[in-house]
Amino acid sequence: MKKAKLTFANETLREIVHVSVGGALIRVRLSNAYGKEAVEIGAAHIALRAQGAAIIPGSDQTLTFSGQSSITIPPNALVLSDPISLKVAPSSDLAISIFLPKPSIGAGIHYSAQQTNYLAAGDLTSAPTLPNPSTLSSWVFLTGVDIAAPQSASTLVAFGDSITDGARSTDDSNHRWPNFLADRLLGHTGSMLIGVLDEGIGGNRILHDPNSNIEFGVSALARFDRDVLAQPGVKYVIVLEGINDLGHAGPNLFPNEQVGAKDIIVGLKQLIERAHEKGLKIYGATLTPFAGVPFAGYFSEQKEVERKAVNKWIRTSRAFDAVIDFEKAIEDPANPDHIAPAYDSGDHLHPKDEGYKAMADSIDLSLFQ
Predict the structure, then answer these.
(1) pLDDT (tens digit, 9 = 90+) per residue, 49-87?
(2) In terms of CATH architecture, what is 149-368?
(3) H or E segment at 96?
């Protein structure tokens, strides 16, 4: 499976999205974030997904934007489709098809989606399936799906790096920890209806932008407004960020961007203040173990000291509205600097499916009553 290519012309992207809650009135968000040129959307459709690139017959609908079937998105802008009636089941898949008639540079890209998406020549936005499509593992231009819900419902944003993004989980399985949490919330009668929004970006850091690798996303401080505060219905945010601030700094990566626990704590305090300013509950997740990571320079004994200092502050400062102890959920009791072998994907940084489930299972659902 390929990552997103940078240019498209006379092609249809069919992108697969897994929703958390269900509903009967939905709209789609398309983004040209960080794009430097306008992009023309010639047509867009939405349907219930069957398998692969195929849609369920009779479910396809045309998306319009301010009443028009096409729209041009200015550089760095966002557009919303008009709401449409489509009965969507909880924890199900949608297929959103976007036709790009003119040469367009991919923007608003989520590079490592852990999801197979499809690409074919021509306007096939309404096609039951795509003939001999190529595949890619990124979402391009598509940045969100909104589902109308009762006034009592709310949104929970999982805000973090590759561990929140579900790196090294099984592709097309929706086994990221936010997916497992969403399923738990659906089955928990003591909580209100809560949609879970995954805003994890692989390689993301709190304090620094990605230099030459835009795949890592701009810093958490820079993207917090767009990815958290601006989301519809948001009431809760879980923050799991900081391991890359430690790991990426050093002689083999970003030698001038070394940080310690005090720097990370300052950044986390800023996120807390900004969430509280908007009336959100913000929960701090402890940084998970990373000893043994094979990436050159990523782990050191001093970085482990700093990780533990961050976690001590998260647990004891009472700065967050609550603590979610992901470290305890997946650490090896016999060797707590490491992820437990049963949960380790093999790179000693990212959990595998069972580890992501253990993380989600460790969250106290009463936090969302």
Answers:
(1) 999 999 999 999 999 999 999 999 999 999 999 999 999
(2) 3-Layer(aba) Sandwich (3.40)
(3) strand 93-100
